[in-house]
Amino acid sequence: EVRLVESGGGKVQSGGSLRLSCEASGFFFVTSDMNWVRQPPGKEPEWVATIDRYGSTTTYADSVKGRFTISRDNTKSRLYLQMDNLKPEDTAVYFCDFIGLRGRGTEVTVSS
User: Fold this and answer.
1) DSSP state letters, the chain
2) Cα 80 → chain centroid
3) Mean pLDDT across the chain, nearest whole number?
4) According to a count of CB atoms within 10 Å of the terminal CB, is the N or C end of the chain lower?
5) Rounded distance, CA 90 to CA 84, Å?
6) How far is CA 36 from the centre of its chain?
7) pLDDT tens readout for residues 9-59
8) For residue 94, which of 19, 28, 33, 30 has the smallest C-alpha distance?
């Protein structure tokens, strides 16, 4: 059974930073490309970032490029999202995503 558990969310002021983590189990993490997806309040989910199985290729949504960094530790089956210079529009529930499967998410609130 695929299990994804996100953590690290919280409330920060604009310009602050947070580091999200995702603990993955139930599938071969080391051979899987992984994503972060977020859902702002009252809106549809939106893709944030992707990292390939090797951790060598990353892609980002334009809205977060230059501020967020996706990374992974295959030895620990963990996915990360370092979020810097946070803005109020980054407020959302953030999900670790594997082929459309997601955990319960972790909530990020950015105040101005």
Assistant:
1) --EEEEE--EEEETT--EEEEEEEESS-GGG--EEEEEE-TTS--EEEEEE-TTS--EEE-TTTTTTEEEEEETTTTEEEEEE-S--GGG-EEEEEEETTEE-S-EEEEEE-
2) 6
3) 97
4) N
5) 11
6) 4
7) 999 999 999 999 999 999 999 999 999 999 999 999 999 999 999 999 999
8) 19
Look at residue 7 in the predicted model and tell me its pLDDT: 98
User: What is the per-residue pLDDT across 46-100, written as a single tens digit (0 to 9) for each?
Assistant: 999 999 999 999 999 999 999 999 999 999 999 999 999 999 999 999 999 999 9
Distance CA 30, CA 53 (A): 6
- Residue with token string 């030895």: 75
